[in-house]
Write a structure and sequence with these properties.
Layout: E1 9-12, E2 15-18, E3 24-27, E4 39-42, E5 53-61, H1 62-65, E6 76-79, E7 82-86, E8 92-95, E9 102-105, H2 110-121
Antiparallel strand pairs: 1-2, 3-4, 3-9, 4-5, 5-7, 5-8, 6-7
Length: about 120
């Protein structure tokens, strides 16, 4: 899915790349071939002009987290045929150099992502 909105060339994963936007799904370059966290979901709003870091949530394989998926705090996704869950309690800020290329966008899941963060922060 091609990115839309404001575009900047910034170093990302050691290469020039498009600025990651809210709800972009990116490859996790630190996930080993047999790892369970293949993707990262950008949850930092587009209006925040921090150039060096992004707030992300890990998208882990459902098999790695299925016993604890409940109450909307960990919504499921299908990315490139992989069933993954948004591990909202693992929310963190990381350097853009630690985020791989954008491969998709989860704009159609905006409500589910916002609800998960709201549940995590007690703001529901």
């Amino acid at each position: 899915m091609p990115p839309t909105g404001r575009i900047f060339n910034v170093p990302c994963g050691g290469q020039a790349a498009l600025l990651m936007r809210f709800l972009d799904i990116c490859r996790n370059p630190h996930n080993p071939p047999d790892g369970n966290t293949p993707y990262l979901l950008i949850i930092q709003g587009n209006y925040i002009e921090v150039q060096s870091r992004r707030v992300v949530v890990a998208l882990m394989t459902v098999e790695a987290v299925s016993p604890i998926i409940k109450g909307g705090v960990m919504p499921g996704f299908t990315v490139e045929g992989h069933h993954v869950a948004m591990v909202t309690p693992e929310l963190t800020g990381i350097s853009i150099r630690g985020i791989g290329p954008v491969i998709a966008n989860a704009e159609d899941r905006h409500h589910d992502v916002s609800r998960a963060v709201d549940i995590l922060t007690g703001d529901f």
